[in-house]
Fold:
Amino acid sequence: MALHADKPATRILPPAPYAAALLGGWWLDRQVHALPLGGGAATHALGWLLIGIGLALFVWTLWTFHRHRTTVNPYRGASELCMDGPFRFSRNPIYVGDWFIFAGVALLLETGWPLVFAPLIWAMLRYGVIRHEEAHLQAKFGDEYSAYKARVRRWL
Structure:
């Protein structure tokens, strides 16, 4: 994999694996019905809570990108290294937020089928997106990014 300071060589649109897993899980639930996940008001409340947490994290991250005048687009190069806001806790706060939203929607659908795809989603993000983003940031920001990686975990 070539390191490019101008932009990451991202291979996958990050929301796509989540959307495919939710659609595939919903379809499997309609066909097989074998993995019910909760049900009722408590399940729906938890689902909405998780979605809310994920959306809040997404908005916080977008605001941080905006303040730093850098892009959220995974196909464009970063103009600045964000290390404050949600980036103090995770190098990938949008993807963490996506996991909250994903789990919340699975709860609202009341099926565990989407969660069966979680390892595949993780692998697709890790190798199709994150490794390319990290290579770009390393090539562009060098030691500053290395120090940041040593301080902050990739997920949480």
